[in-house]
Specification:
heterodimer, A: mainly beta, 5-stranded antiparallel beta sheet, 4-stranded antiparallel beta sheet, B: alpha+beta, 2 helices, 42% strand
Chain lengths: 147, 165
């Protein structure tokens, strides 16, 4: 990017200065220091009884991708999830653990996990529900998708 | 420095803004303040394409399969208390082919040699709360070269030490 003032695109300078101003205000306005015993992580989860329902779960036919997006992504890697817990429950209300899960390397603070629930091809699980909990350094939202 | 913005030399303003951005980034990467959404989470890795490569030795419990255990330790560079998560990517045969849990399920169904990764939290080191350790094992075949790549997601930059047991 050219940095000559007269060569900058419209509003580029204002945008950069505004962004820096908000960063510095955040740094000055925050109260807790991040150290010995003063750090309180966020817990992010929905108010819904379940976050995702999948039906007819066989041995290897359902793959779920969960994405956590921090509220603030203005700096690369700003905010993110320290760890995630998923609870999988079958139609009769039994909690099934563990769910085979892999975490992907976060990109720009956005974290992704992939879950591979398994059941029997002969006797598929008719309905399985998932509830997700995120322990993060920031506020954020999450979404689920089959892939 | 001439304070008039139109009198700045070429790229001088950009250099100033770059410096400010770098400072804000450093402030968040070092002694961070915890507020609403402004803590930086840092993904650390060794920078190498893989942190371990090799053929698995025979499992003493089942000599037809390969098995190896690892100790992985992350050490925070700046803060006293580390909150960290470990991400392990397994590559089988070459670094171009990442082996996923889905591949494991396919291999099990086909009665092929399946590669299974297990990661457990190691006992917490109460005297060194800036460190976190995991015990990891991999089960697979005895002829293919495996490559392991480790990433640590934490509230600080970390260095990662991997020991094959």
């Amino acid at each position: 990017m050219t940095t000559r003032v007269d060569s900058l695109p419209e509003n580029s300078l204002v945008d950069r200065v505004t962004s820096l101003q908000s960063e510095l205000q955040e740094l000055r306005g925050a109260a807790q220091t991040f150290g010995a015993a003063s750090y309180r992580p966020h817990r992010v989860f929905s108010a819904n009884p379940v976050d995702l329902t999948v039906t007819t779960v066989k041995y290897n036919n359902i793959r779920i991708e969960v994405t956590f997006t921090p509220t603030d992504t203005s700096l690369s890697g700003l905010g993110g999830v320290l760890f995630m817990r998923a609870v999988m429950t079958d139609a009769s209300g039994r909690v099934i653990t563990p769910v085979m899960t892999e975490r992907l390397v976060p990109v720009n603070g956005i974290s992704k996990w992939r879950l591979y629930p398994t059941a029997s091809d002969t006797f598929p699980a008719p309905s399985v529900t998932f509830k997700f909990y995120f322990f993060s350094t920031c506020a954020g939202t999450f979404s689920t998708a089959l892939f | 420095m001439d304070p008039r913005i139109d009198h700045l030399s070429e790229n001088e303003l950009g250099t100033i803004l770059d410096g400010l951005e770098a400072q804000a980034n450093e402030l968040k990467a070092g002694a961070q303040f915890v507020g609403t959404a402004n803590v930086k989470t840092i993904v650390s890795d060794s920078g190498a394409p893989s942190d371990y490569s090799g053929v698995l030795p025979a499992d003493p419990q089942n000599t037809s399969t390969g098995y190896r255990e690892f100790s992985v330790q992350a050490t925070a560079s700046t803060i006293p208390n580390l909150y960290a998560d470990l991400i392990v990517y397994v590559f089988k045969g070459s670094l171009a082919t990442r082996y996923t849990p889905s591949d494991y399920l396919v291999d099990v169904a086909a009665s092929a040699a399946a590669t299974l990764l297990r990661v457990e939290n190691a006992p917490f080191d109460v005297t060194n709360p800036n460190k976190k350790s995991w015990l990891m094992s991999i089960t697979g075949d005895k002829t293919t070269t495996y490559y392991l790549k480790f990433y640590v997601v934490a509230n600080a930059a970390t260095t990662i030490a991997v020991t094959a047991l």
